[in-house]
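@channel sequence for tomorrow's demo:
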Amino acid sequence: MARIFITGSSDGIGQASAKLLADQGHKVFLHARNDQRAQDARSAVPGAEGVIIGDLGSIDGTKQLAEAANAQGPFDAIIHNAGLGLHVGSSKTSDGLAPVFAVNTLAPYILTCLMPKPKRLLYLSSALHASGTDSLDDVNWETRRWDSMAAYNDTKLQDIMLANAVARHWPDVQSCSLDPGWINTKMGGASASGRVSTPAKAIADFASGHGGSPAGSRTGVYFTPQGAQAAKKSAEDRGKQEQLVKICEKYSGVSLPK
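structure tokens (generated this afternoon):
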């Protein structure tokens, strides 16, 4: 049985994935951003090994989460599921960052850098990444006029870039990205037609390493629950990937281990 850590698992797709994996007998550790959400997560997934608390909207909070998770590890799989959606305001975090960049891009980068290499890493993206900008000159929205949807789309493209960069730097780790689809969750909205069970199964298949994942045993794959897909061409650009890694290093003060 695998040891698995899933960020953003107090509700939605993360929680559904955790429940499925726990029911299969895997040792699953949940994540919540505060004590109340941790209690909710424990109630929803009683078979989980525990809940690790940490605020991904803060650089220090994310570093503290990595430290707390390492105390429970090592893990066979880490699923970077936590994220902010399309309707986040333009106000900055305490670190002076656009929240959607802090949570969707920088936090998974920091956790990747500060936690021991697992066998499998998965970064949740979106089909909307195709509308993300190819430029990485203003990831923190310092000069552009704020557009919450564009900011979200940018980070989902960045998540694929990050997954692909890690796949190149760490050939002994299977690092992939997933578009879960338009799912009826708090983030996806009530009008979404997809059910959480579909991406939950895709995540569980990947995390367990028992086969059945559309990614198979390949690394650097962008996939949906229905199969591998071609991501936006710039996501495959090594120069862009390295530029993003350097940007994340600048903001976080953390380097990607070799």
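heads up for whoever presents: Residues 3-252 form a domain with the Rossmann fold fold (CATH 3.40.50.720).
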